[in-house]
Amino acid sequence: MARLRLREVSESEEGFYRLERAMRYGKRLKLAKRVPRDVFMPEDKKLWFLFERIYTVVHDKEVAVLRRFGLTPMQYNVLEFVYVSSCKPTLGFIVDELRVSYGNLFAVVKNLTKKGLLTCSVCSTDRRSKSLALTYEGKLLFEEVQVVHDKVLGNMFSAMRKNKKSDIKSDLKFILRHFSPEKIE
Question: Is the pTM of this model over 0.85?
Answer without folding.
Answer: no
